[in-house]
Amino acid sequence: MWRTLALASAFFPGLFILCIRLLRWAAPGWSLKDRILLSGRLVSTVQATMATVSGITVVLSCKNVVYDRHWLAVEYIWVLVPYMTYDIYVMYLCHWHRARNLEKKHSLASVWSFLLHERLMVTHHLFILIVLTPITQLNMQDTLLHKVNGILVLVTFFLCRILLFPFMYAAYARQVGIPLYLVPFRIPLHCNIANASLIAPQLYWFRLICRKAARLYGGSPA
Ligand SMILES: *[C@@H]1O[C@H](CO)[C@@H](O)[C@H](O)[C@H]1NC(C)=O
């Protein structure tokens, strides 16, 4: 636990700084703001990949969905904690750089403005949305790459964030040997409530992604 925590605490900020340095070397024409924005997203992509690989590993090595515990599922929390902390700071940096013409230096006021303006942003999901649409920033909305990326977002979000819940219920049904529709009545009520409150924001975000996709493929310039 402590070793993971220490490693991750050094890894994410270290990678962030490394990305900024490398970008300065690879794209000298870019402003510091653009380098910070892209580096933040690169580090988030690395984290997302690590989380996905861990998730798949856990699912694949799980035999009993009720009692099995995989060390990765527990240990990854100690990767997430430093990542979230780091991520909030980077979000603040990005906000500050975007609004720099208004706020000249870091202050309580600039932190407050970040929290006010980006109160939704402080939730991880919106950040993911923005991470997954980095191409928008480069004015490449019309490129094929952007459209392919949009479809990938839609499909992966649906598979990993929405279908995950029926998948869990189905895994339980298979484990216990009951039909799927009986699962909500067999598991404790608080599990149903917790699952419902977890899927609710995902459905909300999925609706937003669909709306964005409709705009993208509908051909409306807005
Ligand atoms: C969601 O439901 C599954 C059963 O399908 C249960 O194992 C899990 O604990 C629930 N999630 C939460 C957060 O309660």
Question: What report would you give on this structure?
Answer:
- The chain crosses the membrane at residues 42-60, 72-92, 148-172, 187-206.
- This protein is an all-alpha fold.
- It has 10 helices and no strands.
- The chain has helices at 2-26, 32-60, 71-75, 77-98, 108-117, 124-132, 144-162, 164-176, 183-186, 189-218.
- Helix 1 (2-26) packs across helix 2.
- The N and C termini lie far apart (48 Å).
- The protein binds 2-acetamido-2-deoxy-beta-D-glucopyranose.
- 2-acetamido-2-deoxy-beta-D-glucopyranose binds at residues 168-169, 172, 183, 187, 191, 194-195.
Q: Outline of this structure?
A:
The protein is mainly alpha-helical and 222 residues long. The chain is built from 10 helices and no strands.
Task: Compute the average pLDDT.
Answer: 83
Q: What is the β-strand count?
A: 0
Helix content: over 70%
Measured by DSSP, the beta-strand proportion falls in under 5%
Give the termini separation.
Answer: 48 Å
The small molecules bound here are: 2-acetamido-2-deoxy-beta-D-glucopyranose
Using the alpha-carbon principal axes, give the shape: globular
Instruction: Indicate the low-confidence ranges by residue numbers.
Output: 128-136
Largest beta-sheet characterization = none
Q: Summarize the helix and strand pattern as letters.
A: HHHHHHHHHH
Structural class: mainly alpha
- Count of alpha/pi helices: 10
Q: Compute the gyration radius: what is it? A: 20 Å
